[in-house]
């Protein structure tokens, strides 16, 4: 018997997975996240946190921006400050420049997640080292929904790896490639904004995603 091809397997598995997730969704108001996504649209996402521990740290800032086709819709963006339960350490302030007084009037985490989920809708989520941001977001979203964000995810560093790898001679492929964000932006000849600001990072990641899609298509 021939093995099932990966794409064929996904076609079989995804509807089953979707039904399972929807059955376990704790709040029916968020069923829209399972709708068919608008064609050729994405949401780029970035978060700033009190540190790098998924278990101990918290989100204090969220930036998100929509992409339609090859256009970064900077007029359709989301910027949220989130009030953490714990104090912000001086070390993290040096990175993201957000002090306790800056987030003192921030949103309750669950309110912020609700706004974010409505902004994303059913669009695929794009990010740079997205796994960490999603882990931080899903800590709160699991409490609300009984599951994490269900949308498809696209990792920009993986796209950059594929692009750089495709430029190498066949006998040199699949080696180490510098995936640091500054390296990525310089290699793609894209403008760099001030880093460690959630909306700035989301915009830069969006520019990289658009250009990489074009390069990989070629």
Helix and strand topology:
Blueprint: H1 6-24, E1 41-49, E2 59-68, E3 71-81, H2 90-96, H3 100-103, H4 109-120, E4 125-127, H5 130-145, E5 153-155, H6 156-166, H7 181-187, H8 198-217
Parallel strand pairs: 1-4, 4-5
Antiparallel strand pairs: 1-2, 2-3
Helix pairs in contact: 6-8
Biggest pleated-sheet summary = 5 strands, mixed
Q: Return the CATH class.
A: Alpha Beta
The separation of the N and C termini measures: 36 Å
Order of strands across the widest beta sheet?
A: 3-2-1-4-5
CATH topology: Nucleotidyltransferase, domain 5
- How many domains, as an integer? 1
Quick summary:
By secondary structure, the chain is of the alpha/beta class. 44% of the residues lie in helices and 17% in strands.
Q: Could you explain the architecture of this structure?
A:
This protein is 44% helix and 17% strand. It is of the alpha/beta class. The protein has a single domain (6-217), classed as Nucleotidyltransferase, domain 5 (2-Layer Sandwich), CATH 3.30.420.10. Strands 3-2-1-4-5 form a five-stranded mixed β-sheet, with helices on both faces. The mean pLDDT is 89.
């Amino acid at each position: 018997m021939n093995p099932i091809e990966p794409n064929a397997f996904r076609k079989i598995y995804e509807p089953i997975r979707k039904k399972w997730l929807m059955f376990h969704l704790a709040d029916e108001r968020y069923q829209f996240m399972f709708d068919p996504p608008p064609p050729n649209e994405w949401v780029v996402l970035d978060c700033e946190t009190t540190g790098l521990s998924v278990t101990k740290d918290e989100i204090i800032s969220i930036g998100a921006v929509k992409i339609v086709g090859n256009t970064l819709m900077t007029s359709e963006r989301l910027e949220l400050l989130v009030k953490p339960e714990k104090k912000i350490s001086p070390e993290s302030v040096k990175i993201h420049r957000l002090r306790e007084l800056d987030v003192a009037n921030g949103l309750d985490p669950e309110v912020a997640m609700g706004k974010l989920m409505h902004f994303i809708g059913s669009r695929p989520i794009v990010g740079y080292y997205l796994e960490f941001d999603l882990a931080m977001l899903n800590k709160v979203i699991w409490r609300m929904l009984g599951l994490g964000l269900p949308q498809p995810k696209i990792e920009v560093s993986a796209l950059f790896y594929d692009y750089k790898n495709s430029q190498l001679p066949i006998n040199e492929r699949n080696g180490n490639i510098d995936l640091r964000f500054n390296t990525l932006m310089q290699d793609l000849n894209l403008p760099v904004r001030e880093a460690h600001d959630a909306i700035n990072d989301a915009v830069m990641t969006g520019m990289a995603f658009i250009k990489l899609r074009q390069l990989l298509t070629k």
